[in-house]
């Protein structure tokens, strides 16, 4: 096994400007460490990204071997600070786009409407391919009320598990753009012993065709800081918005800094849909 990443192939992709360095590593041979991930994600001295997606066969990674019969590929996701995360909704779509463009998905998986199942640390996820990619994410569990502190102000919110921990906090119209997310919001370490992504959300009055509700969101992601988008955060927001309204089904359009995603909830099903693009490929120096 190599002791360096020099010469390794990489790609760069994003989903609504939530961006990732993609490392194809089918046999799990790359010597990936927290320090190397952080260096790759550094926006001045590295490639720059919100996280790293390692593309490894499920059978070759101890975190996914049990899922190998159902999914050939495992999304080994690392945050920008080098910590390992359970789930990433935008990352899944970028991962799927890479599989098809790199010819790693079997048969006609790259054609519109085809479905691909991948393994993650939160279980199997299946995506439907097209100009946008729609992924069955599973409905987030709402875990009760808590809150966040930001700039000395308290924001009540709802804790949610979307495969990873979230706190969804509504804010009044007009306040969202002015929030200072250069530092992490304070959250209850008893409720969130491993940290959480914190979403601040406000309703948007303009209707979106095909959506029942329309909101805007900003997010501070653990291990990455404020990002332009967060797919699992959109899932959590949709579940909270519909739950607070007493609804068990509906489509929520969520405007993030990098674009728009939709989350469609129907009982125990939640489908996250949005764009995913590969913008560059190369070799690490």
Automatic annotation (TrEMBL):
InterPro entries: DAP_epimerase_AS, DAP_epimerase_DapF. It is found in: Cytoplasm. It comes from the Bacteria. It holds the Pfam family DAP_epimerase. Gene3D superfamilies: Diaminopimelate Epimerase, Chain A, domain 1. Substrate binds at residues 18, 79, 89-90, 164, 197, 221-222, 231-232. It catalyses: (2S,6S)-2,6-diaminopimelate = meso-2,6-diaminopimelate. One of its GO terms (biological process) is lysine biosynthetic process via diaminopimelate. It is an enzyme of class 5 (isomerase). The keyword Amino-acid biosynthesis applies. The keyword NADP does not apply. GO terms for molecular function: diaminopimelate epimerase activity. Keywords: Amino-acid biosynthesis, Cytoplasm, Isomerase, Lysine biosynthesis. Its EC number is 5.1.1.7. The active site is at 88 (proton donor), 88, 230 (proton acceptor). Pathway: Amino-acid biosynthesis; L-lysine biosynthesis via DAP pathway; DL-2,6-diaminopimelate from LL-2,6-diaminopimelate: step 1/1. One of its GO terms (cellular component) is cytosol. The record marks 166, 221 as: Could be important to modulate the pK values of the two catalytic cysteine residues. Catalyzes the stereoinversion of LL-2,6-diaminopimelate (L,L-DAP) to meso-diaminopimelate (meso-DAP), a precursor of L-lysine and an essential component of the bacterial peptidoglycan. Belongs to the diaminopimelate epimerase family. Homodimer. This is Diaminopimelate epimerase. It comes from Actinocatenispora sera. The gene is dapF.
């Amino acid at each position: 096994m190599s002791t360096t990443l020099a010469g390794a192939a990489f790609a760069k992709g994003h989903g609504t400007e939530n961006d990732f360095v993609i490392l194809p590593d089918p046999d799990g041979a790359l010597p990936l460490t927290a320090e190397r991930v952080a260096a790759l994600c550094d926006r001045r001295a590295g490639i720059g990204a919100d996280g790293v997606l390692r593309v490894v066969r499920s059978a070759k990674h101890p975190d996914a071997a049990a899922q190998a019969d159902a999914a050939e590929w495992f999304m080994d996701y690392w945050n920008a600070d080098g910590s390992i995360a359970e789930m990433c909704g935008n990352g899944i779509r970028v991962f799927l786009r890479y599989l098809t463009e790199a010819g790693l998905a079997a048969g006609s998986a790259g054609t519109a409407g085809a479905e691909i199942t991948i393994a993650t640390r939160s279980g199997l996820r299946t995506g439907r391919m097209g100009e946008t990619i729609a992924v069955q994410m599973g409905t987030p569990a709402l875990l009760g009320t808590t809150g966040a502190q930001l700039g000395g102000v308290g924001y009540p919110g709802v804790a949610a598990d979307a495969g990873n921990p979230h706190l969804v906090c509504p804010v009044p119209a007009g306040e969202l753009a002015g929030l200072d997310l250069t530092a992490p919001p304070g959250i209850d370490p008893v409720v969130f012993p491993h940290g959480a992504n914190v979403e601040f959300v406000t309703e948007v009055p303009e209707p979106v065709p095909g959506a029942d509700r329309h909101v805007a969101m900003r997010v501070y992601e653990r291990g990455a800081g404020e990002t332009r988008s967060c797919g699992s955060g959109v899932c959590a927001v949709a579940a909270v918005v519909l739950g607070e309204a007493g609804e068990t089904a509906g489509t929520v359009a969520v405007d993030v800094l990098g674009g728009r995603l939709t989350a469609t909830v129907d009982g125990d099903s939640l489908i996250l849909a949005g764009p995913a693009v590969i913008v560059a490929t190369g070799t690490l120096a």
